[in-house]
Structures are given as C-alpha cells and as structure tokens.
Amino acid sequence: xxxxxxxxxxxxxxxxxxxxxxxxxxxxxxxxxxxxxxxxxxxxxxxxxxxxxxxxxxxxxxxxxxxxxxxxxxxxxxxxxxxxxxxxxxxxxxxxxx
Length: 98
Known about the structure:
Layout: E1 3-6, H1 12-26, E2 28-33, H2 36-53, E3 58-71, E4 74-87
Parallel strand pairs: 1-2
Antiparallel strand pairs: 2-4, 3-4
Helix pairs in contact: 1-2
C-alpha cells in the first residue's frame, strides 16, 4: 500500500488528486499526518477526492488511527488514515421530502 505524507503546507487539491489516482489504480492508500494543520489538510483532501471519484462510480472509506513514527530520531504521534476504494452507493430517496 502506498503511503502519502501530508504536511500543514500541503495543497489539498494536489493531495486529493494523488489519493484519487491511487484508489483508482491500487484500491487503497495510507495517509500520515502529524499535527492539527496537517490533519486538517488531509480531511479537506479526502473530501475533494470523493468528488474526483464520483464519475468513476467509486467512493472512499477512511479509517483513522493514531500511530507512533520516528521522525529525525524522535518519536512523534501521527494520525494515519487507511483509505479504501468502494463502489459508489446509490442514494435512496427520502420519503416525505417536499
């Protein structure tokens, strides 16, 4: 599984494009983010990637978890998102909607 590392200065549209491409080709991707700003960019990228995948009949499922990473000989806590492609679910009509 390919691993993408997102920083606070990562561009969400660029990360979203990479996520969508990897989900189309490999069906899964792992994303690592350290710090609240990097996690924010990751979540924005995941939302944008969903839009990129809709024409392919795909959606994504992201499962977050905390992991320990060694960064420059220092242990850091990161958020890891395990992302899988799945078939796009057809939305059901809401009964009683006006």
